[in-house]
């Protein structure tokens, strides 16, 4: 089902979100872009088709950082479709050997703290705390609507909360359940990395981040980047919902709480 509402709307779909691969689709009347391409080109094409969209119409890819679950298909899509790829200088240096040859004219530099004006779409970049060369995520603005993506970060600083507060929609990280991670099979060093300030937000951390970011404009929150080893969709959803309810926040009344999936796109929705 494709829920479009208005032809002039800012529309989004989480094509895939999780530890195995991440791709987000954003659309305005004049632009169609991807954030990351962490799956095979064939799989991303299938996911786009599932929301009745084509990769042939995508204008650009915005890369967040060089981890393979975010860049696996970047080079393939750039070569096949001629898409420009935006990333900061350090990320380009870190991912160049992983994505294969991309034409210099398609390698565009976009540093943290900058805003790119594409006409009917403004793209704002911001730094996050993660164990990558220079990780950054993006906030998209169109027709007085804003969509922010915040995953792959160990915490949200006060400054970042101020930058992102009161967006109309968020894709927020709920990567792991702390007890599942602690009791799981990962090496202790990896557990420490995930739990650290340059790791990932837990279900509880994601809930608290959402509470800090919520404003009167906020109508949609997507829970993203769930670990396949250390989380479950229903557990993440219930944890966030319960923490919000404990603080008298009206989940699914003032705003919708949506799940994402590593293999299935969310419906294309207007913000």
From TrEMBL:
Superkingdom of the source species: Bacteria
InterPro entries: Metallo-B-lactamas (IPR001279), RibonucZ/Hydroxyglut_hydro (IPR036866), WalJ/YycJ (IPR058121), WalJ/YycJ-like (IPR052533)
Metallo-beta-lactamase domain mapped to chain residues: 20-198
Cited Pfam families: Lactamase_B_2
UniProt-listed SUPFAM superfamilies: Metallo-hydrolase/oxidoreductase (SSF56281)
CDD domains hit by this protein: YycJ-like_MBL-fold
Protein name: MBL fold metallo-hydrolase
Organism: Periweissella beninensis
